[in-house]
Write a structure and sequence with these properties.
Blueprint lengths: L1 H9 L4 H34 L9 H26 L10 H12 L6 H29 L5 H29 L4 H10 L2 H5 L2 H6 L4 H8 L2 H12 L15 H41 L3 H23 L5 H25 L6 H17 L9 H6 L2 H33 L1 H22 L8 H4 L2 H6 L1
Helix pairs in contact: 2-3, 2-4, 2-5, 2-6, 2-7, 2-12, 3-5, 3-17, 4-5, 5-6, 5-17, 6-7, 6-13, 10-11, 12-13, 12-17, 12-18, 13-15, 14-15, 14-18, 17-18
Length: 458
């Protein structure tokens, strides 16, 4: 079986890979834009609807507005993960269509409830995209460059989207646009990048691995390999996988569970900063929310992503993720300790630098591994890849939605330092889990990294 897909695994990085990278990556670009933009304009939204920190429903509404897209993403991931065994491409394009419609509708909401509903709709598309895009890219990619392709398309593209949101917000403010229009324009503009790839997503070829291992379409496999690599393969036997779902889960449940837990823990930490960094943290440092987000992305997140791109296929996924989680834990502990103990010598610049380091560690490590979907696609055999990927995505989104309620509550009830120490502890736990539970998968064919071959030949 490995020999059939060998042309895909050994194909040099080509124009097809680059086009597929942009086609798939723009969904995550939009996700980065949509989920960071709500953090940037959150205070404007709350002000527009007369919600203040003294309002009795302040915490619940803040959490619901911030977390509704994440709740939608968890549900969308499960739905489209189950549907993915009907075809990776079959539903590709529906995800970005949902994101486009949801983003546009934000410009026309008249109350918090309507905003929560349309962001939930947007989230359904985000969840679908996080399942379909990494699978399609991984199943088309070569083994040597698969890590950097996914890290760029589903890690660094997120940072590019978040950066654009901050730039647009600052530009509208500088132009003197009324605040009531600023947040509507910023949120609705997320429709543009997602709409730009609807057509391209409908034209991307079905993956050879889906056609062979799930559908059993021999001629389809040969056609896709010919299109992607220019190589003719001699395939006469049926590749369809007859191993049961239960057998795969019986053998690999610990790996699948570990991948779910790691994305869950990462998103608790990461989305505390994404959703509330530009509002709560930036306000405590006296920094404009747009400036805060732009500096975080430009000085820490994007450089972290570049580090990941340069090392993920050489050093490997596991070392990067362990070190990244450790850096996040140390940076957050240092930030909380400095803010609570600096006294009269406190410097917002030092505090911002310490906080920003956790974004560097995040994107250099788990943000480009767990949160880019690598573990789900590389550890799960083709037949159960869609389901496992949906479970990992949903776990992450549940963690992110949970933090939209937990972090502001901890922040307001127990103070900033306590809330940040809580996040640091979670990052440290995730580093240990990665170290003891996750195998290295760099440069291995998907059939080998997922142990699909060993199960079939057992």
């Amino acid at each position: 079986m490995k020999d059939i897909f060998k042309p895909l695994d050994e194909k040099r990085l080509s124009f097809f890979h680059i086009k597929s990278l942009v086609t798939t990556g723009m969904g995550v670009f939009t996700d980065g834009y949509d989920l960071s933009s709500i953090g940037i304009v959150l205070l404007l939204v709350l002000s527009e609807f007369g919600i203040t920190s003294k309002s009795p429903d302040y915490v619940s509404l803040t959490a619901a507005i911030s977390g509704s897209a994440l709740a939608g993403a968890a549900i969308g991931a499960i739905i489209f993960g189950l549907l993915s065994n009907q075809g990776r491409k079959k539903f590709y394009g529906i995800d970005v269509t949902l994101m486009t419609v949801g983003a546009l509708l934000q410009a026309f909401v008249t109350d918090p409830t309507e905003l929560i509903i349309v962001r939930f709709l947007l989230g359904l598309g985000v969840g679908a995209d996080y399942v379909l895009s990494p699978m399609i890219m991984a199943e088309h990619a070569n083994a040597k460059d698969r890590g950097k392709i996914i890290a760029l398309g589903f890690g660094l593209f997120w940072g590019f989207g978040a950066t654009l949101a901050a730039i647009l917000y600052l530009a509208l403010q500088a132009a003197g646009v009324p605040p009531s229009l600023v947040w509507r324009i910023v949120l609705a503009a997320g429709a543009i990048p997602s709409a730009s790839v609807i057509y391209l997503r409908r034209k991307i070829p079905e993956t050879a691995r889906f056609l062979g291992r799930i559908r059993g379409d021999t001629e389809g496999v040969k056609g896709v390999i010919r299109e992607v690599t220019g190589t003719e393969v001699n395939l006469t036997s049926n590749l369809k996988d007859n191993t049961s779902f239960g057998e795969y889960f019986r053998r690999n449940w610990a790996l699948f569970l570990s991948a779910c837990i790691l994305w869950f823990l990462f998103d608790i930490v990461a989305y505390s900063g994404i959703l509330f960094g530009p509002s709560l943290i930036a306000s405590s440092l006296g920094i404009n929310s747009g400036v805060f987000q732009l500096l975080i992305e430009g000085a820490f997140t994007i450089p972290g992503g570049i580090i990941a791109l340069s090392l993920i296929d050489r050093v490997g996924r596991k070392p990067l993720q362990v070190v990244g989680f450790v850096v996040m834990a140390v940076a957050l502990m240092s930030f909380a300790f400095y803010k609570s103990s600096a006294g009269a010598s406190f410097s917002p610049i030092i505090a911002f630098f310490l906080y920003g380091l956790q974004n560097l560690g995040s994107q250099a490590g788990p943000g480009s591994v767990s949160a880019s979907g690598i573990l789900g696609v590389e550890l799960a055999p083709t037949k159960v890849r869609g389901l496992v990927q949906s479970l990992t995505v949903a776990s992450g989104r549940i963690g992110a939605a949970l933090t939209s309620f937990v972090f502001p509550s901890l922040f307001h009830e127990y103070g900033e330092s306590f809330a940040v120490y809580f996040l640091a502890t979670i990052a440290a736990i995730a580093a240990v889990i990665t170290l003891v539970a996750i195998p290295e998968t760099k440069r291995k064919p998907l059939e080998e990294s997922s142990r699909e071959v060993s199960v079939e030949t057992a």
